[in-house]
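Per reviewer request, we include the raw input and output of the structure prediction for the construct analysed in the revised manuscript.
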Amino acid sequence: MLFKDQLDFVTQHIKKNKLRVFMTVLAATMGCAFLIVLASVGFGLQDSLRNEILSNEKVTKIQVFGNEQLSNDQIHEIKDIEHVETVLETITVNASAHSFFEGRDTNSNLYVANMQDFEQVNSELAEGKYPTKPNEIIVGYHFAQTLLNDAERNIIEEKNKKAEAEGTYYDGKEEGYKESLIGKEIELSLVPNTGTTEETEKMRYTIVGVMKKPSYDWMINNSVYMGIEQKSVLVTNMAATFDIKEDEMFYSEFNIFADSLENVKPILDKLKDKGYSVYSVTEQLDQMNVFFLVLKIGLIFVGTIAVLIASIGIFNTMTMAVTERTREIGVLKAIGASPKLIQRLFLMESTFIGIVGTLIAVAMSYVISFVANAVLPLILQAATGEDGFSRNEITFSLIPWQLVLIASAISIGVAMISGYRPARKATKIDVIQALRQEL
């Protein structure tokens, strides 16, 4: 029997029982779509949390725990490890930087670092260049926005009161210095974080660069960054005004950077073997991935139950197909059709139901996923009043190709298994009894 004739045998029965086959395909579609959409929630939440973690961290960064200080020998030892790009010491000044410019002022955090290492880690700036001279500095993205005069502070205060009355807040983005700060000279004094209001003598610096915009809109960065050679200048300036020891003026944070994400884990293992207390965000990702792997397996298992329920419909449809076509099966056997051929004919029909149902389910799942990601944020924003949902910071449903393959294999596999028993029954029909059956 030619393959074309086998297809005709299958399609004739499908056309003859359109409504029954349609309802069976519909059941298979709903079961497979439920499986995909349910599991997509796990993939979506995992993607959201992963992006949340990675947006706040440089993925190649390995952090040295606490206030552990690294000696020059230790730094050189770490740099000699294969695939280590650099070791960056970021020194936080234990004082607020009070900056003055054209009748405006602002208070900022102040950091000191080796600018060559700092540039290597942070790459491009939003504007300008990295410092090359002792009196040059770079500032945070929002430094100009926070440079305010008294009139603007009063305006912001009034807008804040109005926003609070409406249940919102005002971020002050309409005020501040609006022109470029590149090449502008500012005066900077220090106010130690000891509760005093007294300030050091003012120092002059030229702004040559502006850091990139932070990942989130709510993050404000108006910090000041200067080269490591300025540390001694700051010590002299603070010591001249305050009775404070040098080791109380600064505290350091050491971060090790790998040249690529895949090399973070080997470097991390080597550092731990050498006795260093280190941590990487990749460890958090590994723990998160294990949790979501279990969650996704559970969701797929629950979704598979829906597919199994749909398989009952396929089993019933194929059982009725065998009963209704008993005479045709007898004729096929009488003209020499083998049991394998007869079994294949009925398996083809159940497989057809599974394939069609799966294709429709995949298309339907992507539509549902798109609608969920578009509509749910609006509903949650209206219910909670949080603007974060409208910025699509949470992915409610994500359908990767791996999920489509798994769901398709389960759906089509279950359909074939459901048709196997009726197909085997068809091969065991007695030819004489089948031919005696009335049409």
